[in-house]
Amino acid sequence: MEDVTRRHNEKKKRIKAARDKMMKEKNKEKGLVIVLTGPGKGKSSSGFGMVMRCIAHGMPCAVVQFIKGDREIGEKTFLRDRFASECKFFVSGEGFTWETQDRERDIAAARNGWQIAKEQILDPEIQFVLLDEINIALRYDYLDVHEVVEFLLEQKPHMTHVCLTGRNAKPELLEVADLVTEMTLVKHPFRDGIKPQKGVEF
Amino acid sequence: MEDVTRRHNEKKKRIKAARDKMMKEKNKEKGLVIVLTGPGKGKSSSGFGMVMRCIAHGMPCAVVQFIKGDREIGEKTFLRDRFASECKFFVSGEGFTWETQDRERDIAAARNGWQIAKEQILDPEIQFVLLDEINIALRYDYLDVHEVVEFLLEQKPHMTHVCLTGRNAKPELLEVADLVTEMTLVKHPFRDGIKPQKGVEF
């Protein structure tokens, strides 16, 4: 065997041993509070990728879209048309906030969405709840972050996963989350005059 | 109307005008090279979220999994069982590299995956190709990054999207990408002894 190959294989063996040991210690189960934030692309699409995984495992899901509104976006069509019994889909927002220009209406929509969200999280059948773009509603104080955090800490069933997306997640929410990813924008085609692409952005 | 509400609405109106103008200038269409990298959670799940969007829009897809191997992961079951005609699914890797401990076999698997990937990208029917975890194969030089970059620049059909995931993406790849997100790990439940959760991690 070549020297480089042998060294590579030995190194891999050590990594595997360390990893096996680590994985043995990771034995707790818990419904996670997942926050996907940051300005980069991939927050909602990652949330919907997890919904796909849950459906595959027979875990009933619910999605509440807080801000994106009633545009005909791919994930909504997909889940509503084909997976209505596996994943409940609710839309509370009426479009991005810059489209509505009506703070009172935005607040009413956000509060309505949060009401639905609580019901879905409390539903013992539901195992994964995606609160898409809720961070925008929290950021503009359409919803009180303390109310949301308190509910997640005190009323979320132990094994239910809740995923909250949207940029500018509040520190209070990050504090109670189990898993946080910040999507950092390194490059975006907008800068080169390319419009949002079907299948990629919506 | 309250003062704060009026000021909010006026600000929103200005943002909307600026945004409408900007969106008018974003009128180019292009098949994107998308790179999702970084140590945080959400790279593969975001890739699969885009596959979901593409299927919803009737855009045929292909997935090549380079490293994750033949584990029964949710996204594979989901796409193979339910969307075989909308999304072709190929597995080239035999597990994470620390599982295989055999560099020659890893290289052979990666080269096989890249061969399939090229065929799928060149297929005029296919509109979105997800090369899941290919960055790992590139990082360990199982594949030559220059060969991959050259192919993307010179042979990828203009309107085909290609999404490449995996941590430690090479600078040469970032250079030619249209869209790059770095998934930054802020918090991960592994640290608290929680094992990978079904529906969330696989």
UniProtKB/TrEMBL annotation, chains A, B:
Residues 1-28 form a coiled coil. Pathway: Cofactor biosynthesis; adenosylcobalamin biosynthesis; adenosylcobalamin from cob(II)yrinate a,c-diamide: step 2/7. The keyword Acyltransferase does not apply. Keywords: ATP-binding, Cobalamin biosynthesis, Coiled coil, Cytoplasm, Nucleotide-binding, Porphyrin biosynthesis, Transferase. It holds the Pfam family CobA_CobO_BtuR. It comes from the Bacteria. Its EC number is 2.5.1.17. InterPro entries: CblAdoTrfase_CobA, P-loop_NTPase. It is found in: Cytoplasm. Signal peptide: none annotated. It is an enzyme of class 2 (transferase). It catalyses: 2 cob(II)yrinate a,c diamide + reduced [electron-transfer flavoprotein] + 2 ATP = 2 adenosylcob(III)yrinate a,c-diamide + 2 triphosphate + oxidized [electron-transfer flavoprotein] + 3 H(+); 2 cob(II)alamin + reduced [electron-transfer flavoprotein] + 2 ATP = 2 adenosylcob(III)alamin + 2 triphosphate + oxidized [electron-transfer flavoprotein] + 3 H(+). Belongs to the Cob(I)alamin adenosyltransferase family. PANTHER family: CORRINOID ADENOSYLTRANSFERASE. Required for both de novo synthesis of the corrin ring for the assimilation of exogenous corrinoids. Participates in the adenosylation of a variety of incomplete and complete corrinoids. This is Corrinoid adenosyltransferase. It comes from [Roseibacterium] beibuensis. The gene is cobO.
